[in-house]
Amino acid sequence: YMGAVFEEICKQWLWRQNKQGLLPFTFLSLGRWWGSDPRKKSEAEIDIIASDGENCLLFCECKWTNEPVDASVLETLLERSQLLSATNRHYIVFSKSGFTDACCEIAKNIGHVRLVTFAEMM
């Protein structure tokens, strides 16, 4: 139950950040994405995608768990984002409990990745 509530809190935070011009681009819409992953022959889901209506996409994953988010969560988001075409890609991972060192290191090396804790949102 809290996972869905946390996703809604993340959406509201994104709208506030968007209004204040604090994101990499100004988006016009956001929502959940479901689709098919032909490489894995399975369904794929991305918690939140924001779009400027042109070539910029912001891919977001929301994790409401008691453990810090591991690198595998970010790696999955990066992989699933390749299912959509965009020239300009940015990523945010939201977490209730922070992030592992490995996740922080990957985010740092990739660039265009922001790791946001629940405490930062409040």
Structural commentary:
- The chain is α/β, with parallel strands linked by helices.
- It contains four helices and five strands, in the order H-E-E-E-H-E-H-E-H.
- The protein has helices at 2-19, 71-81, 101-110, 118-121; strands at residues 29-37, 42-51, 56-63, 88-95, 113-117.
- The longest helix is centred in the first third of the chain and has 18 residues, at 2-19.
- The protein is globular and about 30 Å long.
Largest sheet: 5 strands, mixed
> How would you spell out the order of helices and strands?
HEEEHEHEH
Largest sheet strand order: 1-2-3-4-5
> How far from one another are the termini?
20 Å
By helix and strand content, what is the structural category? alpha/beta
The share of residues in helices is: 25-40%
Would you count the extended β strands for me?
5
Gyration radius, in Å: 14 Å
Q: Please, what is the average pLDDT?
A: 95
The fraction of residues assigned to DSSP E strands is 25-35%
Question: Which consecutive residue ranges, at least 5 long each, have pLDDT under 50?
Answer: none
User: Can you tell me the overall shape?
Assistant: globular
Concise account of the structure shown:
Helix content is 35%, strand content 33%.
Question: Keywords, please?
Answer:
122 residues; alpha/beta; 5-stranded mixed β-sheet; 4 helices; 5 strands; 33% strand
Would you spell out the secondary-structure blueprint of this structure?
Blueprint: H1 2-19, E1 29-37, E2 42-51, E3 56-63, H2 71-81, E4 88-95, H3 101-110, E5 113-117, H4 118-121
Parallel strand pairs: 3-4, 4-5
Antiparallel strand pairs: 1-2, 2-3
Helix pairs in contact: 2-3
